[in-house]
Amino acid sequence: MTIPHASMSRPHGSQLIDVRHLRALDAIGRHQRLATAARDLHCTPSALSHLLSDLERALGLPLVHRDRRPLQLAPAGLRLAACAARVLPAIQQAGDELERLRSGSSGRLFISLECHSCFEWLVPALDEYRVRHPDIEMDLRAGANFDPYPALRDGSVDVVISCDGGAQPGTQADALFRYEVVAVLPPRHPLAGKPALAPADFAAATVITYPVDESRLDLYTRFLGPAGISPQRRRTAELTAMVLQLVASGHGIAALPRWAAAGAEASGSVALRPLGSGVWSQLAVLRRSSDREAVAIDRFVAIARKVSFATLEGITAPRSAPAVRATARSALRRR
């Protein structure tokens, strides 16, 4: 059987040329001496000559006029040298950018919040991070109707600050700290006379919360829900400061992290009481498992921990990240 001549054709030139060839021709074009070009490339003149000869044989074209002094590039060599002038700087730039990504000195850090009260310490942490790492592009996504977990999975954000503290499938949790969730009351409220509140104390109350589903509120999932208690009325406010103002004005009671309400308690505008024997939660930074070695995220976690313990009252060292709770909150995130 006769094999068609086309199947034995020479490989296309672009398949034969690599970065070594471009660097070699760029060096020869600049120095016009084989020995000097070889020194620039950290190789021997013999190795450089063999590299060019091999490519010339493969291409079927001369690249260098070896009989001329100083050494001159042939037309094919000039074409490749011009290509090298465009390509090599781009390769160098890409390599530099990859190195900055590896070292965490550039890239992006898009953050999403599940915890509404996190602004108390997050803004100072972001300020310090931006000063230390000015080449990192930063963004913050938050809002009552924004579900951060699908955004983390699809790459829209890089980390989620979670008040559940546990890793989701495909994520890694870096625990920041533990905090107590406490009842927030007007100072002269009848319940303020109690050393701690029971779930039944909320049955006839107006409860002021953030505008999120009950499955995302520790008060409901870890205190009222297990006792089968549903407050008489629920009112919402976006900001922690507004929740505190409404409570201080006698419009209802709330449950907040102790550190988020400590300033209002110190000023005498609200009273804080434990929920039962104490309800504790844990704040964590969640990242995709594929980003477990992302230096930019590691540095953010370190700064967030430092700023938190320097500025927040009543927090304690974190425990190991717990398994995902089999609660309505976990079911919400899987949707």
Describe the model.
It is a single chain. With 335 residues, the chain is α/β, with parallel strands linked by helices. It folds into 3 domains: 12-101, Winged helix-like DNA-binding domain superfamily/Winged helix DNA-binding domain (Arc Repressor Mutant, subunit A, Orthogonal Bundle), CATH 1.10.10.10; 107-177 and 281-334, D-Maltodextrin-Binding Protein, domain 2 (3-Layer(aba) Sandwich), CATH 3.40.190; 178-279, 3-Layer(aba) Sandwich (D-Maltodextrin-Binding Protein, domain 2), CATH 3.40.190. 42% of the residues lie in helices and 20% in strands. It contains 12 helices and 10 strands. The chain has helices at residues 13-16, 19-31, 34-40, 45-59, 75-103, 119-132, 148-153, 218-227, 240-248, 258-266, 295-311, 328-334, and strands at 64-65, 72-73, 107-113, 136-141, 159-162, 171-185, 206-209, 233-236, 253-257, 271-288. The strands form 2 sheets. The chain has an 8-stranded mixed β-sheet. It has a two-stranded antiparallel sheet with strand order 1-2. A hairpin with a 6-residue loop joins strand 1 (64-65) and strand 2 (72-73). Helix 2 crosses helix 3 (34-40), helix 3 (34-40) packs across helix 4 and helix 6 crosses helix 11 (295-311). The protein is rod-shaped and about 105 Å long. Residues 1-8 and 321-335 have low confidence and may be disordered.
